[in-house]
């Protein structure tokens, strides 16, 4: 069985595509898991699952200890071979704990998953975006996490049907408690879905100057502002939903304009899949130019107003 | 409080150079250091010890030269170090069992602290995996924590959401890079740390199990990055015009 679980529905649909491809090659079935709510169950069937198991549980909120035990219960009854888990922070801690409980191999953030010599093989980015590790499982069960956007979902197929099995599972409660959940300070920006991103870094001298960047983003219709680590994590001039990089968001817009970003490998790891990359930096030696299709060497305080104007004229 | 801090010796990723012909990273000769977030974990441990008293033990699985790195952590404020010699073939499964075995051998503990991920592999796997083996609660991606006498309070940073949690002891937490700024040891502390013990244990000394990796690495390959690298550095107005024309031509301005 290829088991699929994520607390993020959209990500689950992406996982289902890869899951059904592997299942077909290995002559297995795809089982998608819903925990707590069955709302997504029908969609999971239409997007490639052969069976959906709905875990009916009193544990409404995610806690890795309890969700691990729920998945273990399901695997006891339905086989434990391959488990694909959506790679967000909850998914990763769930996958790791489940791997410990099953004494299983686990590979996080797989960008590619395929069979080589009939063995499950994965590729993931390591060394801060400098290399790809090709890894292979030597035993089963095999647990993988897959990040958003690594695969597209299959087109929805209403005729693809299957069984929805409801199962009452009450895991042993964890001694830890969730006290409250708060929205983090956010400006509601979704850089991962943006088609054009104008991004800023330490080349900006003060918070107010972000306007230069947002003015350019405004004239480009894909209006989204991104930034490198210092702007979000250290200076906090923008909320973390703008942060692009290895530990921020990974993006692939059709156009990425990096303004005053030096091009640390951690930042490159977050934007290397962009269609066209433009860099503006006053230092001709800046690393960012090595990762760019086009670059202008110049002070962003002079370049940005001119560029904004020129694009405005061009686009009418 | 008995506090365990898991620390990993890693290559300094900022110092990695690329082989121009194979595009592979050159890992030989790259300076080694303690992974950044493991120092954040130690900093939290020191703050807890300052408040409640107790003992901080560093546990590392690594090469013999990791001993030098453990000394830096003793200088920062840890009391004792344990270095388990890494077997030749190891994956997360193997290392997690070695850490768990060493922690059981050390004895009673209240808190285990890890970094949210290591800067070389960035899996975020070891902390929660270890918590699973020890069958204790886990709080990952902690951006702050407050240790009280009978429980710990902590806030998980999930990006869009922050989840406040509490747990009784024993508990394992992984901390983020933003949780604190690790202290730099004073010269006095560096000198004093030379008398602190570092125990070296063979893998067979912490577990009787025959540990076989579940995942093997086939290759570490380079990342092809084919970019045009057209850089305009003449007159600014001309540069801007050329760039906008080019962007228009390739169709990204629609």
Structure description:
The complex is a heterodimer of chains A (316) and B (254). Chain A has 316 residues and is an alpha/beta fold. Chain A has two domains: 2-168, HUPs (Rossmann fold, 3-Layer(aba) Sandwich); 191-315, 3-Layer(aba) Sandwich (Rossmann fold). Chain A has eight helices and 16 strands. Chain A has helices at 9-26, 41-46, 64-78, 89-102, 210-219, 229-234, 265-271, 300-315, and strands at 2-5, 30-35, 51-56, 82-86, 105-107, 112-116, 119-126, 131-137, 142-146, 163-168, 177-183, 196-200, 225-227, 255-259, 276-281, 294-297. In chain A, helix 2 (41-46) links the parallel strand 2 and strand 3 (51-56). The radius of gyration of chain A is 22 Å and the shape is elongated. Chain A starts with a strand and ends with a helix. The model of chain A has no long low-confidence stretch (mean pLDDT 92). Chain B is an alpha/beta fold and 254 residues long. Chain B has a single domain (2-205), classed as 3-Layer(aba) Sandwich (Rossmann fold), CATH 3.40.50.620. Chain B contains six helices and 15 strands. A nine-stranded mixed beta sheet of chain B has the order 11-10-9-12-8-1-6-7-13, with helices on both faces. In chain B, helix 2 packs across helix 5 (187-193) and helix 3 (92-106) crosses helix 4 (126-134). The termini of chain B are far apart. The interface between A and B is large, with 87 and 82 residues.
């Amino acid at each position: 069985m290829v088991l699929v679980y994520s607390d993020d529905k959209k990500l689950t649909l992406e996982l289902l595509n890869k899951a059904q491809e592997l299942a077909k090659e290995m002559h297995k079935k795809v089982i998608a898991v819903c925990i707590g709510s069955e709302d997504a169950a029908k969609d999971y069937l239409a997007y490639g699952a052969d069976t959906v198991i709905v875990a009916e549980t009193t544990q409404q909120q995610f806690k890795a200890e309890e969700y691990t035990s729920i998945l273990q219960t399901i695997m006891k009854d339905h086989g434990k071979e391959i488990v694909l888990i959506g790679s967000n922070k909850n998914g990763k801690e769930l996958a790791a704990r489940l791997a410990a409980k099953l004494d299983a191999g686990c590979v996080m953030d797989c960008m590619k998953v395929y069979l080589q010599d009939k063995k499950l093989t994965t590729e993931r980015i390591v060394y801060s975006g400098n290399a790809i590790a090709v890894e292979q499982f030597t035993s089963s069960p095999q647990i993988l996490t897959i990040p958003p956007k690594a695969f597209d979902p299959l087109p929805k197929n209403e005729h693809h049907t299957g069984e929805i099995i409801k199962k009452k599972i009450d895991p042993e409660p964890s001694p830890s408690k969730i006290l409250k959940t708060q929205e983090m300070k956010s400006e509601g920006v979704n850089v991962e879905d943006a088609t054009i991103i104008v991004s800023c870094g330490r080349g900006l001298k003060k918070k107010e100057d972000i306007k230069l960047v947002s003015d350019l983003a405004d004239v480009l219709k894909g209006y989204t502002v991104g930034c490198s680590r210092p702007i979000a994590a250290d200076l906090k001039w923008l909320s973390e939903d703008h942060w692009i990089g290895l530990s921020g968001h990974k993006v692939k817009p059709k156009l990425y304009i990096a303004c005053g970003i030096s091009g640390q490998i951690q930042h490159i790891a977050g934007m290397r899949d962009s269609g066209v990359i433009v860099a503006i930096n006053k230092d001709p030696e800046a690393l960012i130019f090595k990762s760019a299709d086009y670059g202008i060497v110049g002070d962003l305080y002079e370049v940005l107003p001119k560029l904004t104007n020129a694009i405005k004229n061009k686009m009418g | 409080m008995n506090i365990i801090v898991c620390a990993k010796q890693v290559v300094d990723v900022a110092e990695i150079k690329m082989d121009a012909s194979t595009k592979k990273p050159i890992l030989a000769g790259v300076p080694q250091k303690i992974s950044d977030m493991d120092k954040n974990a130690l900093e939290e441990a020191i703050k807890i010890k300052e408040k409640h008293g107790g003992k901080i033990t560093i546990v590392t699985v690594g090469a013999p030269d990791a001993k030098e790195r453990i000394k830096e952590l003793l200088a920062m404020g840890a009391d004792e170090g344990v270095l388990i010699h890494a077997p030749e073939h190891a994956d997360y499964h193997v290392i997690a069992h070695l850490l768990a075995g060493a922690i059981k051998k050390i004895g009673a503990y209240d808190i285990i602290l890890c970094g949210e991920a290591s800067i070389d592999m960035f899996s975020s796997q070891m902390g929660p995996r270890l918590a699973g083996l020890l069958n204790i609660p886990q709080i990952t991606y902690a951006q702050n924590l407050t240790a009280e006498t009978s429980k710990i309070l902590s806030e998980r940073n999930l990006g869009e959401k922050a989840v406040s949690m509490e747990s009784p002891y024993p508990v394992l937490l992984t901390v983020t890079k933003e949780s604190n700024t690790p202290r730099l040891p004073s010269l006095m502390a560096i000198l004093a740390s030379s008398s602190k013990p570092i125990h070296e244990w063979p893998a067979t000394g912490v577990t009787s199990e025959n540990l076989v990796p579940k995942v093997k690495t086939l290759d570490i390959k380079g990342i092809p990055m084919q970019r045009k690298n057209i850089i305009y550095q003449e007159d600014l107005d001309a540069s801007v015009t050329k760039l906008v024309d080019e962007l228009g031509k390739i169709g990204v301005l629609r």
